[in-house]
Write a structure and sequence with these properties.
alpha+beta; Glutaredoxin; 5-stranded mixed sheet; 3-stranded antiparallel sheet; 10 strands
């Protein structure tokens, strides 16, 4: 069964096991002008604070010009239906019109809320990152999506995807077996919870002045364009 956008309630993840609950969620909404505080140098007491690292750390390599004035962060789950909708309907146009022209840079962060295959897929992408092919693996995952928890992201298929994009499969497999990137996945999920995200995909657009706009769901290109243009005109 496909749920959309996937909604997590009290999702907990460790490097070994993930426990999730999810429900159907129909609407999308947005919230603007979050406050980003400087990253703390000492451990904070009390509720976690949103810092620049909450958005920018524990994610993918930057896609696009690292000096682009706008940063687009996506929190996604590779098994998520609406993440797949965004990938096929909107992401390509954003890349062509804004990323490839140096206006926007993009970062993908994991928020694994659907099942264990989601975590394994995230591991696969981070292991591909070691060979400089994170985004190629990210793309092949979404290009082979067929649903939630139906086996398309099995260990066997993940290895086939690695082979298909030209990875050194032996090195990639060793990375997967060792679980080398478990902590970055755990930390990314914790970032999502700190930001009080309730589902995937969720996006944050950070402008050149630090203003941050939050978007939920597979928003159409026009929504992103409006925000990008507002930021570029400042």
């Amino acid at each position: 069964m496909i749920h959309g956008p996937s909604l997590a309630i009290g999702a907990g993840i460790s490097s070994i096991v993930i426990i999730v609950a999810f429900l159907g969620f129909d609407g999308v909404s947005n919230q603007t002008e979050l406050t980003i505080e400087p990253s703390p140098t000492v451990q904070q007491v009390g509720p976690p604070k949103i810092t620049a690292d909450t958005f920018l750390a524990n994610g993918s390599p930057v896609l696009g010009n690292t000096n682009a004035p706008i940063t687009l962060i996506e929190f996604g789950d590779y098994q998520c239906h609406f993440c797949n909708v965004f990938f096929h309907s909107t992401e390509g146009d954003i890349l062509k019109k804004y990323v490839e022209t140096g206006k926007v840079k993009m970062i993908f962060k994991d928020y694994n809320i659907i099942g264990p295959d989601s975590v394994n897929a995230s591991h696969g992408a981070h292991c591909a990152k070691e060979q400089g092919l994170f985004w190629e693996y990210h793309d092949i995952l979404y290009s082979n999506w067929t649903g939630e928890n139906n086996g398309w992201a099995s260990s066997e298929n993940l290895a086939l995807f690695a082979q298909e994009i030209g990875l050194d499969v032996d090195a990639w497999s060793e990375c997967m077996i060792d679980g080398k990137h478990s902590q970055i996945i755990v930390d990314s999920n914790e970032d999502a919870r700190t930001l009080e995200l309730s589902g995937t995909p969720a996006f944050f657009v950070i402008g050149p002045d630090g203003k941050t706009t939050k978007l939920f769901g597979a928003q159409p290109l026009e929504t992103f364009e409006r925000i990008f243009q507002e930021e570029l005109e400042k």
